[in-house]
Amino acid sequence: EPAVDARMQARRGLELDLRRALEHCAPGFGDSNPPRTEFEVFYQPTLDLRSRALRGFEALVRWRHPERGLIAPADFIPLAEETGLILPLGAWVLRRACAEAAGWPETMTLAVNLSPAQFAGGGLVPMVAEALGMAGLPPERLELEITETAMLQETETTLGILRGLQELGVGIAMDDFGTGYSSLGYLRRFPFDRLKIDRSFIEDLGQREASDAIVRAILALCSSLGIAVTAEGVETVEQAGALERVLDGHGEMLVQGWLFGRPAPAAEIAATWFAPGEA
Ligand code: C2E
Ligand code: CA
Ligand code: CA
Ligand code: CA
């Protein structure tokens, strides 16, 4: 099967490149000498729906491959997860994002994504504590995002680690809410601080009564459970308007999406959002 062979070779090549790139991400490298790493953290703004006030940013990793150019996470995070390389990569992203966020205005929050593989091995809580400590970032400013798949295995172990993270003072968000098999089951078992409504529910908001009803129900659920809510993937004025109607002046909803800002490098978001006189 020459096609399969070629695919495996391409994958093997990418894995070697990933390994090579990560050699420059050991503690001490990425932080003091940023140009040496091929990875970069982009940041996407999160705003309060009603006031449109900036609340913080989500860290989204990018890989500047020397030959292939900018690679999106969908094209290397799965490989990093399969090969275990997500551990050094995830640690690097967290350290780097915490260090950059420590320079933002002090009300700004930082959200960082975690992979299921980072829950194995028992090193996650100390790793997060160390990243916060090195950066001098208060734990209250950090929120860690996990998808439901992270919780599929070792439920008790996973819940223990999540509790350990909350004890550090960081927030825990359930990402892509509504896309998994047992979203509600997890909500019952673990006190999430935030729930991020998946983009698929936002897409046809204001056009399909079912979508409006689902978002309304999620809001009601979160309000009674005391969980904060973010709507992801808001692309149009119509979607934002529909969200405002659903919110109907009650409570608070944060929003993220192209309508408000695309993920961008740290320097660019600083220039856009923290420029003197605009902050
Ligand atoms: P996610 O955590 O659900 O992040 C949101 C994704 O949606 C991002 O894609 C973002 O660029 C994109 N997005 C934001 N607003 C809009 C919008 O209005 N419309 C549309 N169509 N898309 C929007 P990105 O940066 O390509 O990241 C994809 C996924 O890769 C993330 O999904 C996350 O699961 C994963 N990922 C990214 N960075 C990291 C990381 O540092 N660690 C881990 N473990 N996963 C990461
Ligand atoms: Ca996320
Ligand atoms: Ca998401
Ligand atoms: Ca996702």
UniProtKB/TrEMBL annotation:
Superkingdom of the source species: Bacteria
Q: Where is the signal peptide?
A: none
| Domain EAL residue range list | 11-277
Q: What protein does this entry describe? A: EAL domain-containing protein
**Which species is the source of this protein?**
Dankookia rubra
